[in-house]
């Protein structure tokens, strides 16, 4: 450490030595200048310079050693040079901080995994009494109470389903199974789930499925379709919802069209943002702002493009544009 310190300040030391030699040279060339007096001055100045070096060494070494207590984001690499006497200290500090940050990141990852597992376990446990509740509601004779309870049951069911997929979507790449998915049974199942709600609001469905199958993941595609149909039902009153599938530009398109209240033009760029609900009905307690956000993330993983057209008071059309088969295979192989 001391050798590196002196080596870094070699230019200073050489300057002082040259000045002292110059002083001796002057005394040698000029006999009238007392040599002993100059020798005394040179001795004193040398002692002072040595004391200065010692004090600076202690002060600067103490400063660099204190860097170990500084914030981990401090860029210490800019303070170190190839010949710096503090290179070892800085390297050890960086290694220590790196190990600490890795440890914290691993701990946070484990905690998030445990939290996700606990929540998924809780959701699955809640589904058991929820299923039993639905069977009990189906046995009720009073149609009014039965309809009301079924609607509230459906709200709980959809919220739990959304929460379940929200936790799973982080690992969606490990959960995908791409296959030929039949559209009609998938859509029919989602409509049956919403049947009581649709009957309560006087909403019907019109299906025109010219293309009957698509290449996708059945579970996540069902989730996307569920969110689109749920939104269409939520914001419609006594009007039919149209679902069409057709072939266009070498790709399959699934279209969900409603004649509800529509979306304000200023909201269209933000409807897929996390937590965004609406600027027109900002106090609406039913909206969570998560359905379309999760649908968009799932669609991106499946390489499905979601196209939206809407006018306030006239309704909304959501189009799922599926990737071409060749494009899908090439992207998966890359």
From TrEMBL:
Sequence intervals crossing the membrane: 12-29, 35-55
Catalysed reactions listed for this entry: ATP + protein L-histidine = ADP + protein N-phospho-L-histidine
GO cellular component: plasma membrane
A GO molecular-function descriptor: phosphoprotein phosphatase activity
Major localization class: membrane
Keywords for this protein: ATP-binding, Cell membrane, Kinase, Membrane, Nucleotide-binding, Transferase, Transmembrane, Transmembrane helix, Two-component regulatory system
Domain Histidine kinase intervals: 121-326
Subcellular localization, as worded in the UniProt entry: Cell membrane
Keyword Transmembrane among record annotations: yes
The protein's name: histidine kinase
Organism listed in the record: Fontibacillus panacisegetis
């Amino acid at each position: 450490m001391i050798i590196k310190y002196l080596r870094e300040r070699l230019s200073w030391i050489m300057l002082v030595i040259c000045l002292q030699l110059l002083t001796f040279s002057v005394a040698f060339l000029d006999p009238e200048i007392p040599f002993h007096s100059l020798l005394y001055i040179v001795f004193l100045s040398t002692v002072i310079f040595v004391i200065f070096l010692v004090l600076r060494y202690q002060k600067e070494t103490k400063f660099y050693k204190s860097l170990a207590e500084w914030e981990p984001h401090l860029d210490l690499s800019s303070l170190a040079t190839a010949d710096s006497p503090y290179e070892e200290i800085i390297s050890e500090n960086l290694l220590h901080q790196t190990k600490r940050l890795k440890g914290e990141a691993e701990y946070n990852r484990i905690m998030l995994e445990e939290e996700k597992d606990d929540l998924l376990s809780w959701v699955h446990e809640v589904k058991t009494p929820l299923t039993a509740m639905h069977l009990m509601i189906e046995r009720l004779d009073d149609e009014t109470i039965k309809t009301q309870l079924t609607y509230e049951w459906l709200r709980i069911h959809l919220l739990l389903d959304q929460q379940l997929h929200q936790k799973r979507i982080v690992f969606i790449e490990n959960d995908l199974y791409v296959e030929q998915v039949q559209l009609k049974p998938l859509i029919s199942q989602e409509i049956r789930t919403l049947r009581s709600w649709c009957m309560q609001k006087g909403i019907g469905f019109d299906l025109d499925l010219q293309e009957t199958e698509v290449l996708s993941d059945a579970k996540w595609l069902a989730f996307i379709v569920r969110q689109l149909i749920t939104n269409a039902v939520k914001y419609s009153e006594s009007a039919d919802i149209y679902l069409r599938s057709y072939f266009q530009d070498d790709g399959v398109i699934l279209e969900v069209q409603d004649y509800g209240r529509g979306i304000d033009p200023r909201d269209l760029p933000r409807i897929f943002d996390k937590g965004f609900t609406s600027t027109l009905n900002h106090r609406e307690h039913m909206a969570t702002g998560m359905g379309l956000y999760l649908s968009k993330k799932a669609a991106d993983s499946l390489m499905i493009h979601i196209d939206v057209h809407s006018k306030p008071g006239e309704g909304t059309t959501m189009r799922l544009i599926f990737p071409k088969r060749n494009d899908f295979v090439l992207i998966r192989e890359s």
